[in-house]
Fold:
Amino acid sequence: MIFSSLKKTMGLASIAALALGAVVARAEQAPKDATLVINGDTKLVTHVKPPSYIPGLSDAYSGWRFRATETQALETDDFDNPGMIFVDQAKDTWNAVDGTEGKSCASCHGAPEESMKGVRASYPKWDPAMGKVATIEMEVNNCRTTRMGAKAWKYTGKDMTDMSALITLQSRGMPVDVAVNGPAKSTWEHGKEMYYTRTGQLELSCASCHEDHYGDLIRAEILSQGQINGFPTYRLKNGKLNSIHARFKGCVRDTRAETYKPGSADFVALELYVASRGNGLSVEGPSVRN
Amino acid sequence: MASGVKPRVKVPKTAAAGDVITIKTLISHKMESGRRKDKKGELIPREIINRFTCEFNGQSVLEVILEPAVSTNPYFEFQAKVPESGEFKFTWYDDDGSVYDTSKSIKVS
Structure:
């Protein structure tokens, strides 16, 4: 009885709020409780307390926690995860010789399971040779052009994203740990500024959706926190692996703004900042999302 | 031969005699339906996996005829009873004449 009358009162209150035209800011909603275990043995962290330099977020959740049960299930078994098809293809590319130097990735790096272990967890990071913050994609293309004598891949192209997935997989289960201080500091600050700056005709910042309204509906979809620990991500909507910058581009486009270029310094800065918001979450790529 | 074709199969390594086991198979294939048009407006010729078979110790377990409406990267999950130790053989037949196969052995105790 008490419950039903309480419900009624709440219903009336919200109707009153609507009638007054008041904007009711909804508090952030915690996603459903579930534990992500892959192949029955790898347990992944999908919820952590974010670092102190992310004051806007009380809890950091992997995007996996916001997805439908069926979509979540696809990621719990590598056979069911369609992203693994592309990892297999990247493994062939890894061993294939390309370019004028007659080298493959394997010529220098051997088996990715050994040489790439833990690499993804700390990227994007400061590359002293380049003199800037570099992403996995930038390192791959650097290798291709300077060491292999091969043509650079398109930043968000299939070859690149699949290779990035192969590299990411070797760090799966390790905590994301990008450095925000030291030489990367100014890049991180730039990323932070971008995150909170409203852009586009809709005047939305990243935070408008992914910090203030995660767990709420945006049309028919449930908003996640926009964490990138699960990238590259196999999306059911397009049946392929999607890179971080391609996703950023889609998001910026949806605010009806001119987008930045994938691989641009702006997106690299944003990637570093967004990655730092999920420091402590497990590297999950290649993940499955809708 | 179509590019990027790779069969993947999951079969339990061990089972008890008479057990019903679940087998999962997936082959990466673009499954071009033959109904799509390219940028010039010309039909892209059909190229699909048209037949899939599974055999256990030479005995047929499953045979599937696939049609153009089947999606890219076709996935099959089915169950089979294993009376004895042996080998599952999986074969996919491509429109262009290519045949892809893989096999997995299972130990029955």
